[in-house]
Amino acid sequence: MSEHKSYYATIPANVRYDKSLTANAKLLYGEITALCNEKGFCWASNDYFASLYDVNKVTISRWISDLIRCGYVSREMIYKEGSNEIVNRYLRINQYPINKNVNHPINKNAKDNNTSFNNTFNTTTNTSSGHGDILKPVLAFWENNGFGMLAPITVEHLDHWVDDFIKIGASEENIAPLLTHALEIAVSSGHCNYRYVNGILKNFEKKRYLTVEQVKAEDKKQKTTNSGKIENYEYSPEYLNLDF
């Protein structure tokens, strides 16, 4: 790790234009892609990145956490057998959406990666999640609408939201439409990341919205009350206390 790698760095559009990420976090993403090009994963430590960019390890940790939170990077910890001591930390780049207007052939490695992702997706929704059947259409919407590859932690968070809506009285048949509607709002607002979706869902929970119909009815009232001057103000980053 004493020499700089010569592999190309890649920063796709959804990372470059994600306003929830700092410029340096995006640069770190590119560095991780360069290291992943050698073995398929990044084994570099926070010490290495801190030295490379002349910052402290806490800063590096924050950048990596932001990339994980947004679903662009996944992290795997390898522990010493029988203890909580971390032996290795591996970072992997999550697959980002392919531009459907560009017709590129898929090479063997890309196909293998997609197969691996699908296996992970099925395993996550069927075993790790307690509400796989409810979440299936939600996760499919996420995957196909510009949010990036699903990270296991995102599935886990959405699974917790199913429990939270059940606790406030929502029926199981209405929860998937509610979660999907939050994703639709995120897409229309140009903030395709979990942080924004989480803010919307917190607002739903606070207002005790149990169906999409309730949400839309309240949205219509707000637009009428504000004479159309402030459209969907309840979903603005400022209202949701999000700093983009």
TrEMBL record:
InterPro entries cross-referenced by the UniProt entry: DnaB/C_C, DnaD, DnaD-like_sf
Domain DnaB/C C-terminal: 140-218
SUPFAM superfamilies: DnaD domain-like
Pfam families: DnaB_2, HTH_36
PANTHER family: DNA REPLICATION PROTEIN, PHAGE REPLICATION PROTEIN-RELATED
Family affiliation: Belongs to the DnaB/DnaD family.
The protein's name: DnaD domain protein
